[in-house]
């Protein structure tokens, strides 16, 4: 689940506000990503957490924030849609890149961040450290978002014990 910490970071908000205002980005809020989160919430989490890490490492946090937000711009349910041409892991970064380019112009680094965010599975190696950060944070968020409902259930249950 997404907390709203990012809203209290004016520098982050300024970096992504034009993207967030775009209807095609808002539309990501209509898709479930993992159990308890929409694709928009997931994308903001990945973007904001990656931005903070990139900033702490004196990397290009602007490109990280923007491309992180656009890394999953696809509009189908990945749990049910099957492709003839390849796996979801291979295809959706390419779909996302095409959709992202309709929203804003992308630098080579931003393109790499979007395209390589599944590199562990699709074997295309990232060219930039920022791409590695977004990819790792994406994995981490997927696990966290998947387990959050269970975690909440467990905390509710253990409160009643002892
Ligand atoms: Fe993805
Ligand atoms: Fe993702």
From TrEMBL:
Origin: domain of life: Bacteria
Entry keywords, A to Z: Hydrolase
Domain HD: 39-142
GO molecular function term, any single one: hydrolase activity
InterPro entries: HD_domain
Matching Pfam families: HD
Name of the featured protein: HD superfamily metal-dependent phosphohydrolase
């Amino acid at each position: 689940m997404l907390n709203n910490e990012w809203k209290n970071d004016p520098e982050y908000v300024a970096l992504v506000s034009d993207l967030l205002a775009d209807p095609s980005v808002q539309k990501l809020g209509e898709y479930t990503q993992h159990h308890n989160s929409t694709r928009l919430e997931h994308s903001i989490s990945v973007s904001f957490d990656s931005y903070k890490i990139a900033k702490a490492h004196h990397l290009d946090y602007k490109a990280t924030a923007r491309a992180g937000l656009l890394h999953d711009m696809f509009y189908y349910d990945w749990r049910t849609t099957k492709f003839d041409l390849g796996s979801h892991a291979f295809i959706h970064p390419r779909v996302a890149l095409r959709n992202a380019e309709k929203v804003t112009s992308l630098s080579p680094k931003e393109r790499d961040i979007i395209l390589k965010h599944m590199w562990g599975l699709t074997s295309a190696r990232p060219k930039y450290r920022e791409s590695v950060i977004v990819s790792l944070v994406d994995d981490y968020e997927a696990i966290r978002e998947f387990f959050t409902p269970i975690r909440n259930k467990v905390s509710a249950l253990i409160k009643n014990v002892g």
